[in-house]
Amino acid sequence: MARQARYDRETALKKAVALFWERGYHGSSMKQIEQALDMRPGSIYATFGSKDGLFSEALAAYAEQGRQELNHYLAQTDSLIDGLQTYLRRIACHPDQAPAQPSRACMIVKTLLESSNTHPALADQANRILASIQHAIHDALERAKARGELLETTDCQRLARLLQAQMVAIRSMAERNLPPAELADLGDDVAGILDAYRARH
Fold first, then answer.
1. Neighbours of 28 (CB within 10 A)
2. Using alpha carbons only, what angle is made at residue 23 by residues 117 and 73, rounded to the nearest 5 degrees?
3. pLDDT in tens, 174-197
4. How far is 30 from 24, CA to CA, in rounded Å?
């Protein structure tokens, strides 16, 4: 029974992520949540406690999906820098990579902007997630530097901040419905930032 309940919860969270990513916290009414999750109000409250509780879990699930995606690309090649570059291009949904569709604004950034003055707890959660993403990028850069992939003079903390800022910018630009090829060019440009820091052997 416990296994079935866990599966149902995970399925509901995936549907919640899709809804909140598309509409945001304030743009998602309880009626829309009920329809998207195919759950009655009582079941939603019994499972997640509240709309805030559901959104918080959905945001955490979204962040975990992003963490796994980053680790996936870092593990795909012997070069951590190559892996990071592939990940950065994937964020922009490069046309020759599946799925060939534009990216969307990051749910975490949307939450930070939308909730700063209305739901401080959600905004704080989004801020902590962004900090953890920057830390993960910084850690990958430090490991690459230790392996001789980056110049010894590279300030990995500063570079991690720059890359995260560019990632946020790409996903924000995607909200303008730019052609996929233009987003891909932006992804190439951001990935190209790392080339300036590569150690030459």
1. 20
2. 95
3. 778 788 888 889 999 999 999 999
4. 12
